Write a sequence for this structure.
């Protein structure tokens, strides 16, 4: 038999867990948007953003680098990753 105090603590604990789940369950789903073979000078560059939409990703890149955001490269469709991924991009000469 549980005491009223233990029951009250459990109820509060359960409420906090529900609130946390609601908070994180309703947030935007972030994806990694990657543009490869862009910003070419002597070699290709790469642009990327962790965002909830491709439009948001484009805005973030434009804010971070006005030259990158102002070119035609950013209008291309990026690769979109919505699960864990790893990759490497080698530099050139």
């Amino acid at each position: 038999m549980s005491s009223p105090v233990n029951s009250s603590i459990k109820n509060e604990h359960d409420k906090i867990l529900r609130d946390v789940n609601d908070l994180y369950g309703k947030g935007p789903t972030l994806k990694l948007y990657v543009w490869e073979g862009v910003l070419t000078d002597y070699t290709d560059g790469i642009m990327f953003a962790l965002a909830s939409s491709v439009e948001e990703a484009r805005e973030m890149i434009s804010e971070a680098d006005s030259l990158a955001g102002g070119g035609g490269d950013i209008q291309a469709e990026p690769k979109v990753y919505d699960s864990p991924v790893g990759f490497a991009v080698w530099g050139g000469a």
Q: What stands out?
A: The two ends are 74 Å apart (CA to CA). The longest strand covers residues 31-38. Helices lie at 4-25, 54-64, 66-70. DSSP finds three helices and three strands in the chain.
